Every structure is written in structure tokens, then in C-alpha cells.
TrEMBL record:
InterPro entries: Cadherin, Cadherin-like_dom, Cadherin-like_sf, Cadherin_CS, Cadherin_Y-type_LIR, Catenin-bd_sf, Ig-like_dom. It is a single-pass type I membrane protein. It comes from the Eukaryota. SMART domains: CA. SUPFAM superfamilies: Cadherin-like. Gene3D superfamilies: Cadherins, TCF3-CBD (Catenin binding domain). This is Cadherin-20. It is found in: Cell junction, Adherens junction; Cell membrane. Its main location: other. Residues 64-144, 145-253, 254-368, 369-473 form the Cadherin domain. Keywords: Calcium, Cell adhesion, Cell junction, Cell membrane, Cleavage on pair of basic residues, Glycoprotein, Membrane, Metal-binding, Repeat, Signal, Transmembrane, Transmembrane helix. It comes from Denticeps clupeoides (denticle herring).
Length: 754
């Protein structure tokens, strides 16, 4: 048979059996050897990991009983790690490890061995399988795989409260020796925390730790193998511990008295201010609830908690009035929303403060005595009748005077008038219920001292109906009577009304179309309410021929019907032709009325540059032949008057080319009025005719006549003289220039000297 020999590993194997807790310590080595000899598993080898020697590590020897030492047997090794991790001497059968072994990487190798004849290669024994187990040494320190760690524990926790459970992992073999036996200890974090050596549970070791004093702690935990003995390997980790909050602090207001103010015009629901009771706790433990527990403003104001549950919001509950009450006092309590029964002894968890609210005066608009007014007025009321009086007052302490008016857009027809001081509403136009039955007007009240302060109120005015309209037939009625109708028979009515109707009866018989085909019957209609109103309408009654049953066969109305042969299309064509003819006639008349005169030609009528020459000097006031002033007073007579006898002008007056316009009112008292009207009429006619002269031009006359005793009267040559003129010489020119001397004040000056 074959045997595998490994003396060194055999010794280590028995040593491990002695250390194993499953083997009783009282067993002797001899007993163990005898048991192994009887049942030893010979196909196992043991080798220590992490061999660092320079020579290959000897593992064991493979030997066959057929080996005579003559070198004819060859040993062959195969399986896991053969020829790479393990080698065998094919002559001696010695097995060595040529690579560094690590149990944490691979704890055992399964190999196969066989003895063959070196020459023939014939197997001398069947192939056998054996195992090489790697024995552990303490070459791995404990490790905290999930570190660093985060943990929390409520503040004020008692001693021994568990914080976190730590576990360190050692890669060494836990079944062999103490290489994987870990012991925990705390390096940092005393005296606040501790750790259990065997379990790794971190616990509170100091009572009443307060988060508000210190919130964060850093604890360093060590894990050491070999049971914590000298020479063991160790690993460390950090645990960051946070103290979580508990409701152990009562809230406190920062002030015992808060001052707030609000204008009296603030609407209901407006925010007055906010207050806060501060709590050293956080989160839900700091949430507050507020309420008004006392004070004269508990019915006027309200307090609610904001969405963060930290602040108390004071709002207006009722309308404020500075003139009625100018300040309020509120007693407010703020308390924690969530209480912890374990810490009620640290309470009370509430606080009280006083809030003083001042109401500010605001200039308010006038207020009417009623929210709206209603009035009824008959439609026949006399103009100026006062039918309603409204009143408003200034709600401010100043109580300013009020002025009333009507908002004009509410009374577009201007039917009413408002007295500005008394507020009396009266009519200024007749009312008619049949046109407007309701008037909704708006009355404005304005402060005299502040026109921007305006109050308004609606007044609904109902116009009461009176019997002021006579009755009338609702539509045109036409009836017929048969020629064979008898007395007392009802007339046939082509149109009738469903209410307030009347029947027309015949008083005789013997009707004939030949004698009279149409009767006009006057109808008197009277209403029944005072004052009684009456009206007369006419009913047209036609005489028709009827059959025995009273059905109409023919009436005189047949003459008004269209011939049956004339279709509707033909009628439309005739009307269209008539319409086109009318349009053409209107167009021709329009073109004729807008036909323009030809413009004046330069040879015939352009006279704006013609020169009229006169060979004599004017004769003054005594010269009645030169020009008749009546021509300016009455231009029409000027054309018919006599021309000057001693000369003939080269052109005639332009007025003969322009039609004359009669001056309304006849000849005026003064000539200036007629001249002014004449000039204006000519200017108007020239503006309307773009072809008529005169055109814009400038005529310069720089030449004066010669031979006059008065010499030149022009001032054109005297522009450079700055001295006053002396006109005394006008007295020497005789009576002809007396009027001119009076105009220049010569005679008046001489008289003053006299």
C-alpha cells in the first residue's frame, strides 16, 4: 500500500486537536496516537500560511511500498495548484510549496498523486486524492466595514441607554486559536459614552446630557483580536453621536409687553402684528399654540398660529373706530403643542404676555344714515318737488361739513337735482313712467376740507303710474259685412285683440257694394280710471258679397290686388329698373351742380398788375367828381352811378365780375358797417373760387404827383427823422385842409394857447 508521511504537520495536527475544545484535556498523547494509528486520515497535509523563508516550504512526502530505491518509480502530482503553487520531486516524492500561501485567500487545496514506472509509464498504483490545508496565523486586524458611523440618542437619556451596536470583522480563522477573538474598547468619548467589550454595544454613561448645552459628540471605538492580549492586532472606527431633542424646555416670551398700532380703516382680517414665545427646543417640541385669555380686545381681535407653528398672528375680528375706542389690551398665552410626560416637572410649558393695540385715526369718507334709500314718486309730480332727503356725516372727530351731489353717470337724463347742503332730492324734468319706470341714482357726499373723501349711496326711485295716456286701438282694424247680413249680426273682423275687445253689430240689413262699398266707422275708446282719458279711432268696414254660409266671395279690395299673371320675379325686375333710373338721374344732377367755371385768362380778367393812371391831383373835400363815397356804402349803386366826366379810367371796377351779396338788414347807419360787410362778402366769394383774382401780390407806389401846393404828404421819406413833426403849416393851406389840421391836433393846440 502507499503511505503519505508529514512528520511536522502531524505534530501540529495533534497540537491543534489538544487546543480544540471538543477534545478532553485529560486525554494523553499516547491515547491520541493510538487512536490516530487506528483511524488516521492519512490523505491530509497541514501547512502554515504566510511562510516568508527563502527556501521552498516542505509540506510532506509521497512514498509507495513498491519503491525499492532504484529510481524506477516516478511520482506525479496533479490538481489545484500543482506545478504552480506546489511541486513534487518525482524521484523522492517530496512535496514543497513554492508560492506564499494565504488562508484568507484559499484555505485548502485538493491534489492527486500517482506512482508510475519511469520507463514504461505504467501506473503502479491507482491515483489517490489528498488535501493540503492552510493553517491560520494572526495576520489580519479587526475591521469595521461600515464606519464611520452616525448615531443619535435622545437627550436626558439615563445611563445604560443603548446608542449603537458595532461589529468588527476579523478575516482570521475563528476556529483556530484566538486570532479572530475580538474585544472592544473606547478610546475617545469618555465619560459620556462606553462600549461593551464583547458585544460592541455603545451605551450612555453620563446622565442628563442636555442637547441645548452640547449636541454633537465624537466617539472612537477600538476592536482588538487575540482576546485583547498583548500582541493582538487592532482596528478603530469613529461614531458621531447626536443628541436628539426632547421637550424639556418651557417657552418664554422675549417681552412681557408688546406695543402695536393699526389704522381704523384696516379691514376685518387684516394682520395687526405677530408675537413669538421662544423655545430652546426644536422641531415639533418647539411648536406653539396661542390664544387670547383676557383683555378688553378679546372680542375685537383674534390670534392664530402661522404655518410654521412658531408665531402668533394677531388679526382684526371686528371693524375698528377711532372715535369710539382708541386702544385695546390683550392678554395672550403661548403654550407648547406637544408635551412629554417624562419632563412635566420642568414646566409649566406655557408663558403669558400683554399686547397693547393702539387704533390710529384715519380721515374717513362720509357715511350715510342708511345703506340705501328708496322713494316713490308719481309721474305727474311738479318740477322742483322734493321727494327724498338723504343725510350723511363725517365719522371723524373733526366732523367736517358735507356737500351732496348726484353722480352724473347714474342720471344721464338729468331728471333730478340734489341740494348741496341739505341733501334734498328734487325733480328738474318731467317724469314719464312709460319711458323710464325706475331711476337708480347714486348720491355722493364729499367733505369740504378734503374733497378726496367721498361717500356714496344708492337711491332707487320708482315712478308711480297715473292715468295720463288715452287708450288707443292696438293696431289697425278692418272689418267686413256681407251684403246679405241682417240687423244684429256681428261684423267679421280681420284682426282682433285678445283682451279689452269689443264686438261690432249691424243695426240694419240690405247692404250693397254698388251703393257704398266702404264705411268708415268712428270708435270712441274710454278707460275706466280717473282722470278718464278718451280717444277716437276709425274702423274701416267693407261691403262684400258672401255665400249662404257667410264666406266672403269678393270685396272692393279686389281692385288693389295684383294681377295673377304678374309674378314676383317680374315685380322685382320692374322695381330694379326704376331704382337704376333714379340713380342715373341723381348722378346727372350732381355732375351738373358741380360743373366749374373756367379760370380767368390773363388777357381778359387778370387785373392784379394793371396800372390806373390819373393826370390830375385830388381836389380835396370839394372834389365830388373824383370818387363817390356812396360806391363803398352801396356797391350795387356804384355800378349804376355816373362815371367821372373829366376822365375815363383804363379799367372798370372788379365788382362787376363778382356777383353782389345783399347785406342783411338793409343799409346800415354808418358807412363803415357797409364797407366792412362788402369787404367780407368779397373775401368769402374769393375764398370759394380758386380761379378768381386777386392773387397775392404787393404793389409799391414810390412816386408822388407834382404841382401840388401842399407838396408831398407821404411819410416814406421821413423814416430817418426822429423828431416830432410840426403841422402848424396846415392852417395856412386854407379851408380845404381844415379837417386834416383837426386830425393832427393843430387847431386844438392853437386854441389851448388862446
Amino acid at each position: 500500500c502507499s503511505k503519505y508521511v508529514n512528520d511536522l504537520n502531524l505534530l501540529e495536527f495533534f497540537t491543534s486537536l489538544l487546543d480544540s475544545p471538543t477534545v478532553p484535556q485529560e486525554k494523553t498523547v499516547a491515547e491520541l496516537l493510538r487512536r490516530v494509528k487506528r483511524g488516521w486520515v492519512w490523505n491530509q497535509f497541514f501547512v502554515l500560511e504566510e511562510y516568508t523563508g527563502l527556501e521552498p516550504l516542505y509540506i510532506g512526502k509521497l512514498h509507495s511500498d513498491m519503491d525499492q530505491g532504484d529510481g524506477n518509480i516516478r511520482y506525479i502530482l496533479s490538481g489545484e495548484g500543482a506545478n504552480s503553487t506546489f511541486t513534487i520531486d518525482d524521484s523522492t516524492g517530496d512535496i514543497h510549496a513554492i508560492q506564499r500561501l494565504d488562508r484568507e485567500v484559499k484555505s485548502q487545496y485538493v491534489l492527486r498523486a500517482q506512482a508510475r514506472h519511469r520507463v514504461t509509464g505504467r501506473p503502479l498504483e491507482p491515483e489517490s486524492e489528498f488535501i493540503v490545508k492552510i493553517q491560520d496565523i494572526n495576520d489580519n486586524e479587526p475591521k469595521f466595514l461600515d464606519g464611520p458611523y452616525q448615531a443619535s440618542v435622545p437627550e436626558m437619556s439615563p445611563i445604560g441607554t443603548s446608542v449603537i451596536h458595532l461589529t468588527a470583522t476579523d478575516a482570521d480563522d475563528p476556529t483556530y486559536g484566538n486570532s479572530a477573538r475580538v474585544v472592544y474598547s473606547i478610546l475617545e468619548g469618555q465619560p459620556y459614552f462606553s462600549v461593551e467589550p464583547k458585544t460592541g454595544i455603545v451605551r450612555v454613561s453620563l446622565a442628563d446630557m442636555d442637547r441645548e448645552v452640547r449636541e454633537e459628540y465624537q466617539v472612537v471605538i477600538q476592536a482588538k483580536d487575540m482576546g485583547g492580549q498583548m500582541g493582538g492586532l487592532a482596528g478603530t472606527t469613529t461614531v458621531n453621536i447626536t443628541l436628539s431633542d426632547v421637550n424639556d424646555n418651557p417657552p418664554k416670551f422675549a417681552q412681557k409687553l408688546y406695543q402695536m398700532s393699526v389704522p381704523e380703516s384696516a379691514p376685518v382680517g387684516s394682520v395687526v402684528g405677530r408675537i413669538r414665545a421662544k423655545d430652546r427646543d426644536e422641531g415639533a417640541n418647539a411648536e406653539m399654540t396661542y390664544r387670547i385669555i383676557d383683555g378688553d380686545g378679546r372680542d375685537t381681535f383674534d390670534i392664530t398660529t402661522d404655518p410654521t407653528n412658531l408665531f402668533g398672528i394677531i388679526t382684526i375680528k371686528k371693524t375698528l373706530d377711532f372715535e369710539s375706542k382708541r386702544s385695546y389690551t390683550l392678554k395672550v398665552e403661548g403654550s407648547n403643542r406637544h408635551l412629554d410626560p417624562r419632563y412635566l416637572n420642568k414646566g409649566p410649558f406655557s408663558d403669558i404676555t400683554i399686547v397693547h393695540v393702539s387704533v390710529e385715526d384715519v380721515d374717513e369718507a362720509p357715511e350715510f344714515s342708511a345703506p340705501f334709500y328708496y322713494a316713490e314718486i308719481p309721474e305727474d309730480v311738479e318740477i322742483g318737488t322734493i321727494f327724498k332727503t338723504v343725510s350723511a356725516r363725517d365719522p371723524d372727530a373733526a366732523n367736517n361739513s358735507i356737500r351732496y351731489s348726484i353722480e352724473r353717470t347714474s342720471d344721464p337724463g338729468k331728471y333730478f337735482y340734489m341740494d348741496i347742503t341739505s341733501g334734498a332730492l328734487m325733480t328738474v324734468l318731467p317724469l314719464d313712467r312709460e319711458e323710464i319706470a325706475w331711476h337708480n341714482i347714486t348720491i355722493l357726499a364729499m367733505e369740504m376740507n378734503n374733497p378726496n373723501m367721498i361717500g356714496s349711496v344708492s337711491v332707487a326711485v320708482k315712478v308711480i303710474d297715473i292715468n295720463d295716456n288715452p287708450p288707443s286701438l292696438t293696431q289697425y282694424y278692418e272689418a267686413f259685412v256681407c251684403e246679405n247680413a241682417k240687423a244684429g249680426q256681428t261684423l267679421g273682423v280681420h284682426r282682433c285683440s285678445s283682451d279689452n275687445s269689443a264686438w261690432i253689430l249691424t243695426r240694419r240689413g240690405g247692404w250693397s257694394q254698388r251703393e257704398q262699398s266702404v264705411y268708415h266707422l268712428p270708435i270712441l275708446v274710454t278707460d275706466g280710471e280717473p282722470p278718464v282719458q278718451t280717444a277716437t279711432s276709425t274702423l274701416t268696414v267693407r261691403v262684400c258679397s258672401c255665400d249662404a254660409d257667410g264666406n266672403v266671395l269678393s270685396c272692393s279690395a279686389e281692385a288693389y290686388t295684383l294681377p295673377a299673371s304678374l309674378s314676383r320675379g317680374a315685380l322685382i325686375a320692374i322695381l330694379a329698373c326704376i331704382f337704376v333710373l333714379l340713380v342715373m338721374i341723381l348722378l346727372m344732377l350732381s355732375l351738373r351742380s358741380h360743373r366749374k367755371k373756367p379760370c380767368l385768362t390773363d388777357e381778359e380778367e387778370n387785373v392784379h398788375e394793371n396800372i390806373v393812371r390819373y393826370d390830375d391831383e385830388g381836389g380835396g373835400e370839394e372834389d365830388t367828381e373824383a370818387f363817390d363815397i356812396a360806391a363803398m356804402w352801396n356797391p350795387r349803386e356804384a355800378q349804376l352811378g355816373k362815371l367821372r366826366q373829366d376822365m375815363m379810367p383804363e379799367i372798370e371796377s372788379l365788382s362787376r365780375y363778382v356777383p353782389q351779396v345783399c347785406i342783411s338788414g338793409g343799409i346800415m347807419a354808418t358807412g363803415d358797417g357797409n364797407v366792412h360787410s362788402y369787404v367780407l362778402s368779397k373775401l368769402y366769394e374769393a375764398d370759394l373760387d380758386p380761379c378768381a383774382p386777386p392773387y397775392d401780390s404787393l404793389q409799391t407806389y414810390a412816386y408822388e404827383g407834382e404841382g401840388s401846393v401842399a407838396e408831398s404828404l407821404s411819410s416814406l421819406q421821413s423814416a430817418a427823422s426822429h423828431n416830432d413833426h410840426d403841422y402848424d403849416y396846415l392852417n395856412d393851406w386854407g379851408p380845404r385842409f381844415r379837417k386834416l389840421a383837426e386830425m393832427y391836433g393843430v387847431i386844438e393846440a392853437n386854441n389851448s394857447l388862446w
